[in-house]
TrEMBL record:
This is Glutaminase. Its EC number is 3.5.1.2. It holds the Pfam family Glutaminase. It comes from Dulcicalothrix desertica PCC 7102. The gene is glsA. One of its GO terms (biological process) is L-glutamine catabolic process. Substrate binds at residues 56, 106, 150, 157, 181, 233, 251. SUPFAM superfamilies: beta-lactamase/transpeptidase-like. Homotetramer. It comes from the Bacteria. One of its GO terms (molecular function) is glutaminase activity. It is an enzyme of class 3 (hydrolase).
Length: 300
């Protein structure tokens, strides 16, 4: 990991997300790699304590909570599991089966967040925060300036929500669900937290440091399947081919990857490629997978 860190520290291609000023002002040099095994061994290098907003990586965990709230049949009826081959913020919807394509693209994630149970906005937010806390093993917070900024500029996400309402794909509480979606994207984590969260997914839903059950183990295969096919958006196919691990990226520069039964991997580097994936993050995961034979179909 130290070798990979040194090798890619000098790679400065790509650009930080700039759709809101709060993300644009991040230091592009920040870089960290962290792995957590199912036994709780932690390896970390670089800026692993630096906090950033989780962004789209949240979609994985909210999908898990929606599965716990409603079961897999109902969730599948409301949100598909089909990769789009399109960008994360693509507006295309599956009008035939009356649902967004998958929970990893924005449209599907907004619909998934809409499924989270609770009496009113506060209870729903608290349920989400408690869920994140089980994965991370400590209190988590929403960055208010990122949240308010996303809310006031998220016209595209708002438009998607209204389109889905028009097609009868989601229910009426659009503003409440959009706020919850913007809040989940603005949850603060560091690279080490992400690796622990990924490790819980590798460990039948149990946080390997606190031993707490973060998500019902019966839904791990649903969560990981969707990550595998859809987690890296329009790079998901090439990622599956080269890295061969369930993964998820976010526009703030995080990537998590899960080696089932073994460990969680997280990389943080805010310089993104055109698809919104961290450039150093992709490189590090490709090399880790090759060097350690982590591809799921290695030696099959
Ligand atoms: N908050 C971002 C959005 O909804 C999350 C997207 C991402 O991380 N890819 O546009």
């Amino acid at each position: 990991m130290n070798d990979l860190y040194s090798k890619y520290k000098s790679l400065r291609t790509g650009a930080v997300a700039d759709y809101i000023p709060e993300l644009a002002k991040v230091n592009p040099d920040l870089f960290s790699i962290c792995t957590v095994t199912v036994n709780g061994d932690v390896l970390q290098v670089g800026d692993f304590e630096h906090l950033f907003t989780i962004q789209s990586i949240s979609k994985v965990f909210v999908h898990g909570l929606a599965l716990e709230d409603h079961g897999r049949d109902y969730v599948l009826k409301r949100v598909g599991v089909e990769p789009t081959g399109d960008a994360f913020n693509s507006i295309i919807l599956d009008e035939q089966s009356k649902r967004p394509y998958n929970p990893m693209v924005n449209a599907g994630a907004i619909a998934t967040t809409g499924l989270i149970k609770g009496k009113g906005a506060t209870e729903r937010l608290n349920r989400l925060l408690e869920m994140f806390q089980r994965y991370v093993g400590k209190d988590v917070f929403v960055d208010i300036s990122v949240f308010t900024s996303e809310r006031s500029t998220g016209h595209r996400n708002r438009a998607m929500a209204y389109l889905m309402l028009n097609f009868g794909m989601i229910d009426g509480q659009i503003d409440e669900s959009l706020d919850l979606y913007f809040q989940q994207c603005a949850v603060m984590v560091n690279c080490r937290d992400l690796a622990v969260m990924a490790a819980a997914l590798a460990n039948k839903g149990v946080n390997p440091l606190t031993k707490e059950q973060a998500v019902d183990s019966q839904y791990i295969k649903d969560i990981l399947s969707v990550m595998y096919t859809c987690g890296m958006y329009n790079f998901a196919g090439e990622w599956a081919y080269k890295v061969g691990l369930p993964a998820k990226s976010g526009v703030s520069g995080g990537i998590i990857a899960v080696v089932p039964g073994q460990m969680g991997i997280a990389v943080f580097s805010p310089l993104l490629d055109a698809r919104g994936n961290s450039i150093r993050g992709v490189k590090v995961c490709e090399e880790l997978s090759q060097q350690f034979g982590l591809h799921l179909f290695d030696c099959v």
